[in-house]
Amino acid sequence: MVTGCSGSTFIMPTPTASAGDTAYLRGVNVFSLYASRFQSTDSDSIGEPQSSYDYLASRGIKLIRLAVPWERLQPIKGYKLGADETLTREQLLASLKAPIDKVYLAKVVDEVEKIQTAGMVAIVDLHAGCKYPSNQRSNANNPILRCGDGITTAQLSSVWKSLSTALKDERGVLGYDLVNEPNTSELPGGLPAYEALAQALITVIRDNGDSKIIWVQSPVNSSDAITATTKGPTVVDPLNALVFSQHFYPYGTALKDLAYTPEFDASTLKRIDGFGMWCNTWKVRCSIGEIGWPGEDSAPTGGELAGWNSLGDRMYQLADYYQMDVTYFEAMSSYHEHLVAYDSVHNDDTDKRLFPLPGINQAHSQAEVIERHPTTGDIDQQRLGRPNLSPIK
């Protein structure tokens, strides 16, 4: 039993399946393409070197969730990379009418092929949050477009059709993650509008002759909305190859470098368990697309570090129990931040973003937990949508 400082408790479930009954992939988010989205970098400086993926594979990593920035696939018109400029709404609207940048799309394909060469597979994540530009707060000087408010379903569908056309025959691609962390409180139409958008994107990909697995994320605005519904999943796939996905961090740690206290434990584990129970109730496959906790930066004492890793280990135990794919957030060699599990020794010497990337070649404290919960089962079976698997009863 886990007890938080406030008295809240959580009892870990008892595993009931043998190793032969389980199959799931484990890996990391590689964030390097996204981290460089506004950097003034030429094409040769984009992405990790092959050595990064070889290193991750040597640590037992099998799955890479590859974050791809929308604003490099469709560059902002009139914006010089690396410049400190004020954008206009008209500028952004015009940008979404432009074709996909074929040179950058080729770089995404190149990154996927590096992943395959290392013996791993990728989930290609359009890391946009139903926003353009992504991960940007709207204010008078920095307007932002959102799905339903400047971004049409047709425009996002066109992006996914281009990605699908480029990637559907790439064996290194296991599947796609449609929209990163959609916040339905910011979208006109709320949750129903997001569900309709997700269904439209699934249809576009399938109509393009693409049979790869598709991850569909829950909104992040409050109470895990997509799993709170009593009617189950509201999007469907003719190939039955959907995976429902959520992200889990101990509260506050995704954005801040916090010290460990036992107060984090029960609340974090209850959220993951609630998601797992929803997945089993509706007999759907599920994944944790992002999971993370602070490491050495936030743990100046051995006790704090042990506390974070103990919580992380129990988070993974729940993922094991519910047979979820998991990709830890994050790995990259462009710079170091408090959640990173794998980066470069060169990141120890500077706070600056490094380009070209030196390559991932060292592990941090979180790697101990990640590597204790490896991939099980056959990747090719998972590539086919895992038709012979069912959730733990």
TrEMBL record:
Instruction: Cite a single GO BP annotation.
Output: polysaccharide catabolic process
What Enzyme Commission number does this protein have? 3.2.1.4
Q: Which residues form the Glycoside hydrolase family domain?
A: 49-308
Q: What keywords does the record list, in alphabetical order?
A: Glycosidase, Hydrolase
Please identify the protein, giving its name as recorded: cellulase
Please give the family membership noted in the entry: Belongs to the glycosyl hydrolase 5 (cellulase A) family.
Q: Which reaction does it catalyse?
A: Endohydrolysis of (1->4)-beta-D-glucosidic linkages in cellulose, lichenin and cereal beta-D-glucans
